[in-house]
Every structure is written in structure tokens, then in C-alpha cells.
Amino acid sequence: MSKKIVLIAGSVNTKNFLLGQLKEFILDEFFIEAYSQEEGIQPNIKCDLLIFSSQEMKDELEEMKIAVECSDIVVCERSINFDFIDQVANIPVNEEVLLVNDEKETAYSSINDLIELGLSHIKYYPYYPGIGNYKKLKTAITPGEPDKVPGCVTKIIDLGPRIININSMYVIMDKINLDHKDATFITKKYMKKIINVSKRVSAINNNVNALNGYLNNIIHNLVNGILIYDEDGFIKYSNEKMKMIFSANKELINKNIRNIIDRDLYPYFLSSETFENKKINIMGVTTKVSKFIAPNGKDIVVTTDRDEKEKSGKNHNQNLLLKGHVAKYDFENIIGNGKLIAETKQTALKLSRSDLSVLIEGESGTGKELFASAIHKNSKRKNGPYLAINCSALPDELIESELFGYEEGSFTGAKKGGKIGLFELADGGTIFLDEIGDVSPKVQTKLLRVLQEKEIMPIGGTSIRKVDARIIAATNKNLRNMVLEKEFRADLYYRLKIGYLYLPPLRERLCDINGLVSYFIKMETAADIKISKKVTDEFMKYKWFGNVRELESTIKYMIAVRMGNVLEMSDLPDRKFFEETIKVTSVYCEKNEEQCSLSSESIKILNCIYNMQIQNIAAGREKISIDLKECGYNLTSSQVRTRLCYLENQGYITKSRGRQGTALTDKGINVVKNINFR
User: Fold this and answer.
1) What is the secondary structure of 226-250 as a DSSP string?
2) Spatial separation of the C-alpha atoms in residues 70 and 41, rounded to whole Å
3) What beta strand segments (E) does 96-193 contain?
4) What is the rounded distance in angstroms from the CA atom of residue 146 to the CA atom of residue 328?
5) Side-chain half-sphere of 136: how many Cα atoms within 13 Å?
6) What does pTM read for this prediction?
7) Of the residues 29, 208, 358, 530, which has the maximum number of CB atoms within 10 A of its CB?
8) Which CATH number fits domain 507-577: 2.40.30.170, 1.10.8.60, 1.25.40.10, 2.30.30.140?
9) CA distance 24 to 226
10) Residue 564 buriedness (CB in 10 A; 0-12 / 13-18 / 19+)
């Protein structure tokens, strides 16, 4: 009577493939029966040897509580199928590919198998069902899971299911008492496959050696600018031409590249992306840049060709552009795919196509400067200068001279010949006034004249000068309340607010955290750093009153103190690092004078609902949106929904369909009754 072997695998495809492999190696005197979890497994299994395709499959069978009677068990170790390895070997050096498998562990295991085979000339990125963020690449390698490949991929290299490796085959042979002759047969078959792989890997190594020769040629000739730095951004080599390109007067070696490039260049210089002859704007000049990984697999090499250059902008603006008076950020630099931030970016894009003045309101760290820059970059004025000034960083008299300029002799210490103000310098472009809520009434009056008449008068001047500069203003204060308190001119407020943009705080768009974390890791280091799910889950619990800037600081801290290449809970800052309350200057609790943890906007929403509730009016989103606009809060119905979800989660309101609509809880009523809007 022949001995019986039972194989159990996850998918039908894997079952059929492994069954064929076993039949190729095992003699006909053994009867092999195979089942897949996908098709279903019979409730009672009796055999001499039970073979599982993986440890996960064995664990799942135990959970299914299937009755098993067998003399022995083998849990297979599996590796990449060698038969189709040529397709991987033919991928160009340094190309980036997705490695697609059905589970996270098997995806990483497959990557390790390929690297151990010597196929380390390409950059692998794991992909598996349920992965959060992943790099959208055009090429994917998969060991028999083509149906799991994401839609962004246009080229699929299917290696077929992973094979049972030689170690597991030896174990199986031992279990069924195959003799030495059969063992030699198996070894020969595996060795033949490995020899074919080795031939292809040798060809790959020749390509790498050629790349090494190319690198040496660049270093010796030094025709172009050249910069070499490690994965953490520390510069190892720079020639004189590269120093000239970045206007660096000092030695760059051992400096960090973050200290010599603008932030808008981070995606090019600090990411793992490689490219050739990409046109990048550096210091106002379009330059051809190539970037590749050095043969040691760690250092990054950047070369530039400044002989080919395209100067952007009009002639009268060129000097300003070369001095760095350009917008550094575009909408692609604003990370987040959630509905709330997507709506905000869409509104900003629409405003950019107009020539309206824009007022951006949002808490500190929400990205007001990024949005202002992106609006300019997508406007008709994109080829003109972009100048920014922080109104809270300078004393009042200095702000006035910076904005409007002055004539010679207008005050003690005035420069000979006077000085041109930022409004004149921004002619044909955009001026960004950050922290507009901090300017004095005198400066407010002069700003109103610029908005109304498009003209200025320098300090000490006697003649009017016409200017054509678009104004984008930003503040983290509630200007509406400041108008009511006579701290800010109402006419200037409404002039600025012709175009209005509200930036949501991070705690209202937690769905964007994973994307932001991945982006900040990529911007901080070229090393392959991951973050554990426990940490990202912990991030979802924080209120992030420092917003995106606080999240960025947290990631920088964790990368600095990490012990390995995975950010763990032990790398998190002390909980005191995360603020648990937010100070809102416009509201306070009258009874105990404790700071309220709600923003003035949230308080206003609660107040609107309370007023409708006492009038027996259903508090729907549309009605709340209309009432808020009358109070100076321009929120769409969709944005109101997001705020209501947050307030419901905090226990201030309850939501229901029908006549009742949204209603305040006792906690919400208590807040409204004890809050005075100053």
C-alpha cells in the first residue's frame, strides 16, 4: 500500500504549483493529495505526512479545528522561483520596483531572497494588501500574486509562486525515507537553477563596475558640479563648481545638505529617487541635475550642468529671482489625501487663478506659508517675484519702512539714496504678509490704501507711486473678533477677505498622518526608515495643537534617537512634549477661568446649535454653515460635517437624522453658558 502525503496551501495557484514541484521530486509510489484554503479543506485528514505551505497556513488550520491524523508534519520554508529570475536580472541598475505579495512578511522575505541571490542592483519597495502608503511605481515583481498588484503598475514580472526550498525538500525526503540517490537528484536540479542565476548576476555586476568607472570619470574630470553625501545628508565631497551653484563661500565637507539647499529642493536631494538630466530650479536658475546611488549602495551622488540654463521671469524681475525672491512650495508639497485637505487645496487652486487678495486663517503650524506660496506658483503672476514678511517679527516702524520704503534723509540712520519697499519690489508679483493681525492701526491704514488705490507713498516721500502687487495675508488670530473689539480695521478685514481660505488643524484631519509621517521621514534621511503601527496608532490619540509642524518635529526627534531602522514606541518623546491643552485668546471659562480646549470656531458652532435648539429649529449642516458665514466663519457644509464629527467624539453634541438634527449634550450646553466672546 502506497504512503499518503497531504499538502495544504492558501491559494489554488500555490496549491497547484507546489503539488507539481512535489511530484517532480517524489516517486510515484507515494500518493499526494492537495487542498487549498481558498477552495475549502475536508473536515477530516488522515495521512502519513502532512505538508503545510507556510507556518501561517498551519496556524490557520489549527484555528479551523479540522481533525488531523498523521504520522509526521513538515512546515515548508520557501524561496523565489529561479526559473524566471532572468526577468529581474534584466531590470536596469538603480530602477525602483514594487515587490508584491499576499502578506507583509512574505513580501519582505521575497525581497531578502532576491538580494541574497545577488540581485541587489535595483531598489525594492514592499507592497501587500492593506498597506497604507506606498510608492507609486510602474514596475512590479510578484511571486505568483499578479492579482494583488496595484493599479499604478504598467509592467508586471510574475516569478510564479515561491518554491519549496532545498532545506525543506531534504526534510520531506527524510520523513518519507528516500535514499541517498534520490537526494543527489534533488541537489543537482537545484544547483542547475542556481548556476543559471549566477551567470545573470555576474552580468549585473559588470554593469555596476561600469557605473563605478563612470563615477571615477566624473570625479577626475570635474567638468560639472559634483556633490557626494551620505544617506543622512552629510556632505563628503563637493567641487568648486557646486559651491558656486549654491553660492556657498565656505567649505561644504561635513556640513549637512539641509543647510545649503532650500526646502523646496528636499524632494529631489533627500529622497531615494534617482534621475538623469532633470531640470530643477536652483537659486532662480533652471539647471540640469543628475542623481544616482554610489556603488557602495549608501552614498548619494549629484551632478549638475549649469552650462545649460533657462532663466525664468521677466528681465526686470531677474535680479529679484536670483536673490531668492521666489515661491518655494507648490500644491504637491502640501501632503494629504483626506477629503478635508483636498477640499482646501481645491479652493486654494481656484483662488490662485484669480487676482483677488487672499486671507488665510489657521492655527500655527497648519501650513499657511505653503498655501500662500502655492497660490502664487499657480497664478498668472508665477513668473513675477514673491516676497514674504512676518509682521510679528519686526517692530512697527521697521515694518512700515520695509513695506513702503523711504526717501533719503527721512529719519536718522536712513540709507543714502533711500530704500525701495517690498511693495515696489513685488511689482508684477505677490507679497505675503504673515501674521497680519499684529500690524498697528497706522500700518493697517496704509495697507488699505494699497488695496484700494494700488499706490504707496514712501516714508518721507512727497509723490505717489503706483504698484501692482497681489496681497496674500495670513494669521492665526481670529480677525473677526479683533474687528468687533476695534483692534483691526473692518474695511481692511473685508478687503483682505475677498478671497478667504481656512486651514484645518491636524487633529481634524488625522487620516493624513500616515502620509505626512512618510513624507517627513523621506525628507529627513535617505535611509530606509519604517515606523511601527503602534506608533502611528499612538499618533491618532494626540491632539496635535502644534499641528503639522509639531508632527514634523516629533519625527525629526525620533529619527535622531532611534536605535534601528524602525521607529518604535521607545523612540517617542516624553508625553510632556505633546501639549494637552490649547490656549485660545478669544474665549475663557467665566466660572473657574480655566483655559478652554476648544477653538473659537468650535465654540461658535456650539453657540449656533444652542441658539437653534432653544428656538426649536433643526440644526442641520446647511443651516449651521449659513449662520457661521454671518459671523465671519466661511465653512462649507462638508467642512461643518467634519467639525461636528469632532465635537461629537468629544462629547459636546449628539447627531441624529430627521427633525431633531444635531443637539448639544449637557457638556456642550455647559460650555456655551460659561463662555463669553470678548
Assistant:
1) EEEE-TTSBEEEE-HHHHHHTT--S
2) 16
3) 96-100, 123-127, 139-142, 155-158, 163-164
4) 40
5) 3
6) 0.47
7) 358
8) 1.10.8.60
9) 55
10) exposed
